[in-house]
Amino acid sequence: MTRTPISETSRSNSWFSLALKALALLLISTGVGWASSAKLGIGLWPGVVIGACIFGVSLFSMINLRGAPREMGFTFGLKFFSVMAYKVMNFTLVMWLVNDIGIPAKYGLTVVFCWAIVMSLCTLLAGSLSDALGLRRTLLLGVSFCVLARLVMAGTTNQFIALGAGLLPLAIGEALCTPVLVAALRKFSTAEQRSVAFSVFYAIMNFGFTVAYFVSDGVQKAAGPDKMFSIDFAIFSGDFSVYRVMLLVSLVVELLMIPLILMIRRGAEVTENGLVIKHEEVKHPGIGYVSATWLTVKEAAHETLVLFGGLIRTEGFHRLLIFLLLIGFLKVVFNVMDYVLPPFAVKELGSMETVGRLNAINGVLILVLAPAIGLMTKKYSAYSMVILGGLVTAASFVFMVMPTSVFQGMADGWVGDVIGHHYLKLVGVVSPWYVMIAFWQIVFSVGEAFYSPRVYEYASSIAPKGQEASYASLSYVPLLIGKLITALLGFMGVMAWMCPKEGPGNPQLAWLMIGLMVLVAPVGLLVFRRFIRMKEHGREETVTD
Questions:
Q1: Pairwise CA distance, residues 433 & 403, whole Å
Q2: Is 252 in the same domain as 143?
Q3: Structure letter (DSSP) for residue 157
Q4: Terminus of the chain with fewer CB atoms < 10 Å: N or C?
Q5: Using CA atoms, how far apart are residues 155 and 166, in angstroms rounded to an integer?
Q6: How far is CA 204 from CA 124, 171, 217, 339, 543, in A?
Q7: How far apart are CA 356 and CA 363, in angstroms?
Q8: Same domain for 112 and 254?
Q9: Which residues of 224-249 are buried (b: 16+ CB within 10 A; e: fewer)?
Q10: CA-to-CA distance for 397 and 516, rounded, in angstroms?
Q11: Are residues 340 and 407 located together in one domain of the fold?
Q12: Which uninterrupted H or E stretch holds 344?
């Protein structure tokens, strides 16, 4: 007779506690949004978007991930700061190479492309190193590389020093931080929480990108017409270009990761019996921390070679690799956003000033769609959701292939008014290409919300015990494959069709070629699913196809 009131009281206290947390979260989100708008000078609506996204994603996490250990929240925070620092740096990388380091403009993208490949290859090895070193040590080592590399890049204009002691170590540092966060999320979540956790994880990644876009825009505006800052602080003194200042901003953001790393409990892991704290063996007792860490890194390097060799021989490894190679065709879309859309906009629209806001459509939509779709589809297997999302992504290119005359009426009506005049702040006639690009961004964002978070989940869910980070690192293979395919598009003359130096091009044919390449992924996964698909751990009794 007395158990019911206790249960009701407990439930009431739980919801009361949640309401207090939501109120506190609302105040914090409002404060951050106001500070972003007023202090960073990024504008009212960007500040509103940032505040609303912080509140929405955090409240969603509190409701649907109740009972998760605090380490999951730290992992989300680390992902946010990590991708924000990366995006702020990546925004300015080509301009920094050309204007501050003296790399010829025609080679700027080539250097970035080579750097991205080095980082992707390092990521493949970093997972095994993380399994040997442990989460905390790998993260601290990676952040240290990133901070020191950014210091060098912001402090010198010598090409050899900037590239050899700056850009190269930065690739190593970014590679060390990338797969370990995916592995950490699996360690700190139950099988039931995993789909929602990875969806929130992916939404936070896009939130970091969106905030980085607004911060970069604020720094650009603060620089003024000469694009220079006068700095007199610590080791930095003199006039600094806006591109070097952006590197310093990304350095400060990277430093914010260190307190979160230190708050992660050693040996913490969620098992079938709940959270456990496993005792970590102290290696090399009796010697200093630096010496012990160096010896551990040397041993881990050897263990990495052994683990990576064993990984190749693991049953199912080759099936996972084929799966990830096919996903690479889907990742072409992100390279199209960064490297194809800007010159296309210059050719067809006369300017690339609106490309940033057009790409921001994707980031904002993913913040809402990824957690919502993750929650609605959590009972379905990751593999099936990747196929569905891939088909939707490929279908989005229909908007870019159709004749512009089909969308002329929309461009002249209220749709064009909302997209062109209100969102993009255009003056005068709105080209139908703006409507087509916006529709393409909206539809492929829906597809991305279905497939992209589940790629990370799939790679980590099929990983053998003790090799979570190794398999998580493999989930970044598609990014490398996507870059190679994008380069192949250039060799095939797709860019020449889209943006010829003289005369009219054939952009619809070029977009059709890109769309067909993206379609290879879901079709391949569907046709060869009997040979590729593997069992997802923790889903044996709950998967619905």
A1: 10
A2: yes
A3: -
A4: N
A5: 10
A6: 23, 22, 20, 24, 26
A7: 11
A8: yes
A9: eeeeebeeeeeeeeeebbbbbbbbbb
A10: 9
A11: yes
A12: helix 341-349
- The H or E element spanning position 275 is strand 274-277
Q: What is the pLDDT of residue 57?
A: 72
Angle between helices 44-64 and 355-376 (to 10 degrees): 20
Residue 214: inside a domain: yes
- Residue 309 within a domain: no
- Measured between alpha carbons, how far is residue 458 from residues 43, 221, 271 in Å? 39, 42, 18
172 shares a domain with 59: yes
SS (H, E, C) 133-158: HCHHHHHHHHHHHHHHHHHHHHHCCC
Domain boundary among 255, 280, 305: 280
* Dist. CA 521–CA 448, nearest whole Å: 13
Q: How remote is the C-alpha of 27 from its chain's centroid?
A: 27
Question: d(Cα 101, Cα 95) in Å, to the nearest integer?
Answer: 9
Q: Is 543 helix (H, G, I), strand (E, B) or coil?
A: coil
Q: Is residue 521 part of a domain?
A: yes
Residue 397 CB partners (closer than 8 Å, separation 6+): 440, 444, 511, 512, 514, 515, 518
Residues 371 and 236 in one domain: no
Q: What is the pLDDT of residue 441?
A: 93
Helices assigned H by DSSP within 156-288: 159-162, 168-187, 191-223, 242-255, 257-263
Q: What is the DSSP code (8-state) at residue 235?
A: T
Whether 127 is covered by a domain: the verdict is yes
How many domains is the chain partitioned into structurally? 2
Which of 465, 458, 467, 180 minimizes the C-alpha distance to 319?
A: 458
Residue 238, beta-bridge partner list: 231
CATH number of the domain where residue 321 is located: 1.20.1250.20
Q: Where in the sequence is the domain holding 258, given as residue range(s)?
A: 40-280
Distance between CA atoms of residues 340 and 331, nearest Å: 13
Euclidean distance between CA atoms 189 and 279, whole angstroms: 19
Q: What are the per-10-residue average pLDDT scores of the chain (545 residues)?
A: 43 65 78 68 66 76 75 88 88 80 74 79 70 79 93 88 91 84 81 76 80 74 68 68 87 93 81 67 62 66 64 70 86 79 77 72 80 80 89 95 92 90 83 94 92 75 63 67 69 60 75 91 91 67 46
Of 258, 280, 302, the one marking the end of a domain is: 280
Coil, strand or helix: which one is 400?
helix
**455 φ/ψ sector (left φ>0, alpha ψ -120 to 50, else beta):** alpha
Give this prediction's pTM. Answer: 0.71
275 and 320 co-located in one domain: no
Please give the pLDDT value at position 259: 93
Contact 168, 112 (CB under 8 A): no
Q: Are residues 219 and 101 in the same domain?
A: yes
| Displacement of CA 66 from its chain's centroid (Å) | 24
